[in-house]
């Protein structure tokens, strides 16, 4: 049995890469692959096969459209394997499309100081994948939690470009000039879901003044969260600040995925069926 899709699942999960699993769930008559055949599709790659040909081409197109639209619910599609699909099998097949890793929050955290060292272990227990970035390797603890990638880069700003769209950015470095450079790079991207900068209202006003002088407008500056953290959690200890910031991160992703998370547990799950008949 070909297990390429199984290996792909493990790697995609480790990398927090969104993907769609396609499964043949029903077959009628002659079909390229039997029920149970699977393949996995990401934005850039595909693993295994459900039989090739126009059917597989169309399935990949649907999967990538789901990724582009950030769909989180599975869906069914039924295909007749006739002339319009360029298939000569003459049967029919039903495919299940299941989004994977759609609810995992990807975080880039800059700085490995006391607050970051208190924050990262909390974030690592949540549905998050963290890239923890600093230029000073000796600032990182000996043990890095599972789900956290340690990145040592002499030029941390270079890491902004490689982060996925829709990421969360958290800045808590030891250097105000570096904070400014990171802030500029993040705001220029403008495709993030959350951007938090550690500091006071005074720091925010100074940054806003400098950023406006460089051409950033009010709409961009409003997307910067500074100070960070939920106001109900007060204190200046690293652990207190870390809990406050983690609470804000949780609140943000719950706002995005809350409707799914708040559904009653005893509510039966139904896969929305969409028939797509190719005659």
From TrEMBL:
Residues 15-79 form the XdhC- CoxI domain. Residues 108-249 form the XdhC Rossmann domain. It comes from the Bacteria. Pfam families: XdhC_C, XdhC_CoxI. PANTHER family: ALDEHYDE OXIDOREDUCTASE MOLYBDENUM COFACTOR ASSEMBLY PROTEIN (PTHR30388), XANTHINE DEHYDROGENASE SUBUNIT A-RELATED (PTHR30388:SF6). This is Xanthine dehydrogenase accessory protein XdhC. It comes from Marinobacterium zhoushanense.
């Amino acid at each position: 049995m070909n297990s390429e899709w199984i290996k792909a699942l493990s790697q995609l999960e480790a990398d927090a890469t969104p993907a769609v699993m396609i499964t043949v769930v029903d077959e009628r008559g002659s079909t390229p692959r039997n029920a149970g055949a699977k393949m996995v599709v990401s934005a850039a790659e595909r693993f295994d096969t459900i039989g090739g040909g126009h059917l597989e081409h169309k399935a990949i197109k649907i999967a990538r459209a789901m990724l582009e639209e950030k769909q989180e619910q599975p869906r069914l599609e039924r295909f007749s394997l006739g002339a319009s699909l360029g298939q000569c099998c003459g049967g029919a097949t039903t495919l299940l499309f299941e989004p994977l890793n759609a609810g995992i929050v990807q975080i880039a955290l800059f700085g490995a100081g006391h607050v970051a060292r208190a924050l990262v272990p909390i974030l690592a227990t949540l549905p998050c994948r963290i890239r923890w970035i600093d230029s000073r390797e000796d600032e990182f603890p000996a043990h890095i939690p599972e789900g956290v990638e340690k990145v040592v880069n002499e030029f941390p700003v270079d890491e902004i470009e490689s982060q996925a769209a829709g990421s969360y950015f958290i800045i808590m470095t030891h250097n105000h000039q570096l904070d400014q450079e990171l802030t500029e790079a993040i705001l220029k991207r403008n495709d993030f879901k959350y951007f938090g900068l550690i500091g006071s209202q005074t720091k925010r006003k100074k940054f806003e003044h400098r950023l406006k002088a460089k051409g950033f407008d009010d709409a961009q500056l409003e997307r910067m969260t500074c100070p960070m953290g939920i106001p109900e959690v007060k204190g200046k200890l690293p652990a207190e600040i870390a809990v406050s910031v983690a609470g804000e991160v949780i609140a943000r992703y719950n706002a995005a995925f809350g409707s799914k998370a708040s559904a009653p547990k005893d509510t039966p799950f139904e896969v929305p069926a969409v028939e797509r008949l190719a005659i």
